[in-house]
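Worked example

This section walks through a single chain of length 89. The input is the sequence exactly as stored; nothing has been trimmed or padded.
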Amino acid sequence: MIVFMKVPTRIQERVNRYAGEQLKALRGTMSRVDFGDSIGMKESLMHKYETGQTNISVATLATLARRLEVPLSVFILPDDDTVFAETEE
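Given that input, the structure is written out below as tokens.
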């Protein structure tokens, strides 16, 4: 039997924001529309990802990493992020 751990909301929000920040940094000065077109993603979804409004699945992150030719770890929140030191809900 597989038991899934409930991830505290603050950690999930920080994970989403971090991945989105990394995605935004990778596009640099290119517009969301042009960047989205180059990787096969709509601008509206790019906006949601970059602002942390929606979860990015690991499969999507892996696809983005491959298309952007960066390691998947670029999108993973570092273990020493302060959110992990906070009290869990």
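What to look for: The chain has one domain: 9-73.
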